[in-house]
Amino acid sequence: MTESLRWLRLSEGALQRDELSPLLGDRRAQTNVIVARCEYVLGHWDKALVSAHSALDLAADESQLWITAQAHAISAMVHAGRGNFDVADRHIKRGNQIAAVVPTVDAVGMTTCARAALAEVKGDSEAVIAELAVLTRGGGDHLPGSHSLFFWPTLVAARLDRGDRAGAESELAALIDSARRRCLDFRMQIHWLNARIAGLDGDSTRADVEYAAAVESETTDQLVLDRAAMRRDYGMFLRANRRRRAATEQFAIARRVLSDAGAFPYLRAVDSTITGGAGIPESADPDSALSILTDRERDVVVLAADGQTNKEIAAGLYVSVKAVEYHLGNAYAKLGVHSRRDLKGVVHRK
Question: Per the UniProt record, which residue ranges are transmembrane (predicted)?
Answer without folding.
Answer: none
